[in-house]
Design a protein that fits this description.
The protein is mainly beta and 179 residues long. The protein folds into two domains: 119 residues, no CATH class; 46 residues, no CATH class. 8% of the residues lie in helices and 41% in strands. It is built from one helix and twelve strands, in the order βββββββαβββββ. The strands form three sheets. It has a seven-stranded mixed β-sheet, with helices on one face. A hairpin with a 4-residue loop joins β8 and β9. The N terminus is likely disordered.
């Protein structure tokens, strides 16, 4: 996993619509990043030789469409049933903590191909992929944050929301179930 550090600048990546009330922040917009390879025949028309999708990744920042559409960023509210993985968007209190989190995820499962740190004007976030569990309704985007309050046993409260393939935002406790 490459631990990219990507800083959002004003106007490049608008904040998303997911609001974390305890922290009073918006989570960043999630994008599907599609990289394509055009036909190698310079004389053939593009309609005869369609572009081939090379990668279909996810990001918390947008890329300007460049190289004649070779890279496109498409804003997402939810994943589709055909997506082969789910996403975890996590708030962090610092870039150091975000980097530590990505390293720990990589230590546990080095197959994570999509992991990045993103700094918005409001906070620091990471995005990682995870296997979609059979018990879930399909590929899901999870939004996670820890916040501190004195009324919990350890002083930390967990905020977790998700958006499934139906596009509905729900409160969940999949990652922090009470046993």
């Amino acid at each position: 996993m490459n631990g990219q550090i990507l800083k959002l600048s004003t106007g490049v990546a608008p904040r998303g619509e997911v609001w974390c009330e305890p922290l009073k922040i918006h989570f960043p917009q999630v994008y599907r990043v599609i990289r394509k390879r055009a036909s190698s025949s310079p004389t053939a028309s593009s309609s005869m030789h369609p572009q081939t999708v090379l990668t279909n990744d996810f990001s918390l920042f947008t890329t300007e469409d460049n190289l004649n559409g070779a890279i496109k960023s498409i804003p997402l509210r939810h994943l589709t049933p055909s997506d082969d993985r789910s996403l975890i968007i996590r708030h962090h209190w610092s870039k150091l903590l975000a980097n530590t989190y990505l390293r720990a995820v990589e230590d546990i499962d080095s197959s994570h191909s999509c992991g990045a740190i993103c700094e918005s004007e409001e906070a620091v976030f990471t995005i990682v992929t995870c296997r979609t569990r059979k018990s879930w309704s399909g590929p899901t985007i999870f939004y996670l944050a820890d916040f501190f309050e004195d009324d919990s046993d350890i002083g930390v409260q967990i905020w977790e929301m998700s958006i499934g393939v139906d596009g509905e935002l729900r409160s969940t406790d999949i990652f922090y179930e009470d046993d």
